[in-house]
Amino acid sequence: MNTGCCSGRGTAARKPRCRRKKTARRSSAGRLSTTLIWRSNSMRTTVFAKTSNVERFLAGITEVEKRGAAEACLMLVEGKPGLGKTMVARWWAVQQGAIYLRAKTTWTPNRALANLITELGGSPSRFNSDLFNDALALMARDETPPAVVLDEVEHTLHDSKVLETFRDLSDLLEFPLILIGMEGIGRRLDRHEQISSRIARRVKFEPATPEDTALCVKEKAEVAMAEDLVAELHRLSKGKIRSVLNGIALVENIARRNGWKEVKLADLRGLELIHDWRAMRPGLVNRNGKK
Asked: In terms of pLDDT, which residue wins out, 276 or 25?
C-alpha cells in the first residue's frame, strides 16, 4: 500500500467509525472513547526497522567478532522493558542462524542444557551426565558453531552454575554468547568474575529517538501517517518501541475500518493511542499534542 501522503481531503477532522458500537460513547471529560480489536497481521511483518538501538547491537556484535582474546566472546545487552531488546535479539538470531533461548527461573544447569539440545534439533538424554557432552557435540557439528542468544538472563542468577555451563561451552567452542537482560544486569554480573571478565562488549538500549519512531512508521506502517501524528505517537510512547508498534497497529486498524489512506493527528483526537496500565490516565491523543 502506498505510504505517501494523500491529497484532496478537507481540513475538518473525521470521526473514526467503530463496528462494535453504533454511537460513540464519550467520557465525562467529553473525549471520544472507543475500543478496537487489532488484527494480528497488521504492519509489514517482513520489514525490520534498523533503529539506533539496532545499530548499537550490530556494532557490538562486530566488536565481539574482532576480539583479541578467544575466550572473550560474550556480549551483554541491557535496558529497560519495552525498548526492543527481545525483538532485536530474535531478529538477529533468525538472520544469523543463531540459537535463541529464553531463560527461565526454573532452570538448573541440566534443564538449560536440555533446552539447548532441543533447540539444536536433538533429544535430551535421560541421563544428566550425558547432557553437557551431547550439547557440545551438537554445537560442534558445523565448522563454525552457531552463536547463542540467552534472553532474560537475570532468571539464571539464582544458580550461578547455569551461566557457568554456557560459559564452559563458549570457552570450548569459541562461539559468541549474547546475554540479554534488564537494566542493571551488568552490575549483578560483575559479581561473577568468570562471566564478567569474558564480556567483550556491553550494549545499552536507550529510549527511541524521534527519528527512530519516524523510521518505524516509515518501514512498518501500511497506512500513511502525518508528521503531527508521528510526533504525537513518539511523545506518548515515551521512547518504547513496543508502544510505538502497538500504536502503529491501532492507527492501521482505525484507518482500515474507515477506509482512510492517510491519518492525521486531528483524526484521532480523544482516542487512546497508547495504553499503559500503570498510568493514572490513558495516552489520549489531543489536537495540540497535550494530555
From this structure: 276
Tell me the pLDDT band of 277, cut-offs 50, 70 and 90: low
Cα 287 from Cα 164, distance rounded (Å): 54
Residue 179 backbone phi and psi in degrees, to 5: -100, 125
Which 3 state secondary structure label does DSSP give 240?
coil
Q: How far apart are CA 104 and CA 112, in angstroms?
A: 9
**Grid coordinates standing for 111?**
534443564
Q: How confident is the model at residue 279 (pLDDT cuts 50, 70, 90)?
A: low
Between the alpha carbon of residue 32 and those of residues 23, 28, 200, 271, 273, the distances in Å are 10, 10, 52, 6, 12
pTM of the model: 0.79
Residue with cell 502525518: 226
Percent helix, strand and coil across the chain, each to the nearest 5: 40, 15, 45
Assess contact for 185 and 94: CB atoms under 8 A: no
Of 225, 264, 229, which is closest to residue 15 (Cα–Cα)? 264
The CA distance from 79 to 152, in Å, is 11
Q: What domains sit in the chain, N to C, each tagged with a CATH number?
A: 52-204 (3.40.50.300), 209-284 (1.10.8)
H or E element at residue 170: helix 160-173
C-alpha closest to that of 264 among 230, 215, 234: 230
Beta bridge partners, 249, equal: none
